[in-house]
Design brief:
InterPro entries: Flagellin/pilin_N_arc (IPR013373), Pilin_N_archaeal (IPR012859). The chain is α+β, with helices and mostly antiparallel strands. It folds into two domains: 33 residues; 132 residues, Immunoglobulin-like, CATH 2.60.40. It is 16% helix and 33% strand. The strands form three sheets. Strands 6-5-4-10-11 form a five-stranded antiparallel beta sheet, with no helix packed on it. Strand 4 and strand 5 form a beta hairpin. The N and C termini lie far apart (104 Å). The mean pLDDT is 81.
Length: 181
């Protein structure tokens, strides 16, 4: 009986090793692979301008930043945020998110970060204010800055960056120079 047990033990061990190896191969093969982030929407061109009330009946007053989508992929506003950074003077930044708004003012949660009060939260225009979900070719996003309040002065340069949140990619980036009030 002892001679017969060695081949049986060997067969059982061989089957156990085979099953374990098959399980390991199956686990590796079927393991959930993390999906790469979605691609950043590509725009042929986004233009930016500082617009005064005389230049635009939609401006509320002061300096308005107007970003116009000139072509390329539609951008889902709820998946983007906008950074406004002064390039001259002390480092600062404002972040606008949770777009679009359902009116002409930003809600508290939409101005996610603005310690130096760069953004006038009482004036939003374009697709960001029309509760439309997409920024498409020919449409604009427009909002006012708190210029003239000591934060931004004539001649100061600012950078406006629209970021696609899921991918972290830059959709649009413009630099503008503040004008005299």
């Amino acid at each position: 009986m002892s001679r017969a047990s060695a081949p049986v033990v060997g067969a059982v061990l061989l089957i156990a090793v085979t099953v374990t190896a098959a399980g390991l191969v199956a686990f590796v093969a079927f393991e959930e692979v993390e999906e790469p982030p979605p691609p950043t929407p590509q725009n042929a061109e986004v233009t930016g301008a500082l617009v005064e009330p005389a230049d635009s009946p939609q401006a509320c007053g002061g300096d308005s930043i107007r970003l116009v989508h000139q072509g390329g992929n539609a951008v889902e506003l709820s998946r983007t945020y906008i950074l406004v950074r002064p390039l001259d003077g002390p480092a600062s930044e404002a972040r606008i998110e949770n777009l679009p708004t359902d009116g002409t003012t930003f809600e508290d949660e939409q101005i996610a970060y603005d310690p130096d009060n760069l953004i006038n939260d009482n004036c939003v225009r374009g697709v960001a204010a029309e509760n439309r979900g997409q920024w498409t070719a020919g449409t604009r996003i427009q909002f006012d800055l708190n210029s003239g309040a000591g934060t931004l002065d004539a001649g100061d340069r600012i950078e406006v960056v629209v970021v696609h949140e899921p991918s972290g990619g830059v959709v649009a980036e413009v630099q503008l120079t503040m004008r005299d009030q």
